[in-house]
Amino acid sequence: MRIELRNLAGKRLGHVQADTGSRPARVPVIPIAARPIRADVFLRWDEAIDDAGSLRKCVVCGCEELYVRKNMPQVTPFIILLAFIGALVAALGLANHPATVALLILLLIVDVATLFLARRYLHCYRCRSTFMGAQIARYMRPWDRGVADRMRVTEREASTLLPTVLTGAVPMQGAVESAP
User: Fold this and answer.
1) CA Rg, the chain, in Å?
2) Are 6 and 64 found together in one domain?
3) pLDDT over 70 at 164, yes or no
4) Which of 31, 80, 111, 114 has the most crowded Cβ, counting Cβ within 10 A?
5) pTM score, two decimals?
């Protein structure tokens, strides 16, 4: 399972690779190029995985509120634009040419394939971590504004939450420390 770590503003801090079978307590953070840091994350596996092997709690912060989101490919807005143009062409009656009909059918196939290729990821409401490759249980629901408002992290909670997420953050050799 790959875990994308984010700060409270939603910026990526790095990611970790964790094996749900061995359940490591401490894993090194693989930093992003913009913020080269050397850090470890202490994962909280207590009651995080249910009997079916699905993740039910955030292993980064221990939050029990997770939601499912489909991650659409980056080509999706372009396909939507092409579908709109195709609908406009069909509405204007210009879809009589066999090449136009073939292009519209190809566009339909690409659009349906995009929907099937979209992957589902788990996200934590509190620490905003993203869990890729985790088994998703049936009882996980999509994002809910009520839960998000209830789980909103205040500044006081952020000071206690973030040190447990990234402990021992030391800049790498030759890295320039910049103020956030």
Assistant:
1) 21
2) yes
3) no
4) 31
5) 0.68
